Amino acid sequence: xxxxxxxxxxxxxxxxxxxxxxxxxxxxxxxxxxxxxxxxxxxxxxxxxxxxxxxxxxxxxxxxxxxxxxxxxxxxxxxxxxxxxxxxxxxxxxxxxxxxxxxxxxxxxxxxxxxxxxxxxxxxxxxxxxxxxxxxxxxxxxxxxxxxxxxxxxxxxxxxxxxxxxxxxxxxxxxxxxxxxxxxxxxxxxxxxxxxxxxxxxxxxxxxxxxxxxxxxxxxxxxxxxxxxxxxxxxxxxxxxxxxxxxxxxxxxxxxxxxxxxxxxxxxxxxxxxxxxxxxxxxxxxxxxxxxxxxxxxxxxxxxxxxxxxxxxxxxxxxxxxxxxxxxxxxxxxxxxxxxxxxxxxxxxxxxxxxxxxxxxxxxxxxxxxxxxxxxxxxxxxxxx
Length: 385
Fold this sequence. Notes:
Layout: E1 6-10, H1 18-22, E2 27-34, H2 57-67, H3 87-97, E3 101-107, E4 117-118, H4 136-151, E5 156-162, H5 166-176, H6 194-207, H7 220-226, H8 229-241, E6 247-250, H9 253-267, H10 278-288, E7 295-300, H11 301-304, H12 311-316, E8 324-327, H13 337-340, H14 353-364, H15 368-383
Parallel strand pairs: 2-3, 2-5, 3-4, 5-6, 6-7, 7-8
Antiparallel strand pairs: 1-8
């Protein structure tokens, strides 16, 4: 039985019209890139052909969107087994929709050769260090500034990310915010290497003396102590933009962590304690005036239906209700074996692939058969020409 084009994974009553409202405005895609040195821990990430090449992945992804090829690597990133980066899905959807796009740098180790909005220049440190993201509050405010402007552009804002290792930092942030995330996250490899990631997150939380929910009263501490730069920036962008338009958080585990951060910030008693500078405090109302009803998450069916994850359980724990949808992508009939490998649990998501595929299906009323043909064209241009 074929998958429906758009799968409703989790939809609170308050959001039943979310996709219909998204469709009222054309999509604008913004991809936030960042590095977390956590990705260099063996077994954490397969978002690159080798551990040495993982730091180039995000830069190569956005270079491919802009230039049609990766300038920093010479080729689009691949999983070590062979499946290509999900950026080919994003590229196909952007071409189909003729949608505008931009890149936001939250702190990437390799600077891509593309025009960017810069929220941060400092890459995230490894999770085991005392403060992986020392200036989480400053990054959040930079996101608020960007989100305020993007929200006023008259588009539905689709926010993607490229952060190898980001599902592990997402697990840690969710646990610090009181969610039971251990064993429930998805990832870029079959089985998601849950035991390694659980052990790492549990050990680091013990070493830093933070129990589950220990950062709930001070949510940006969860990013400062356990996260990556994308999370703070993306939360700021989404919260500010939601005052003016609908916002789709493009991704699975990582965007649920961003949604958890947003919900915790909106419920915090004194969020202003994070912001000491007058210019930061002046911008805070743009974020705290967020409209949660304008926020949704979109991913791929490979993530939402991942038998080694449980996104529905994560969604049910969010402090503020948010819907989750999935694009019903299916590569089992592809003529390219490296794409068929997606069906075996490799790659699954990234670079806003699920959200942009869903947007193509939503705005152009197409199904997986049409979308797969578009994706195969991009794959062939890059790898077979």
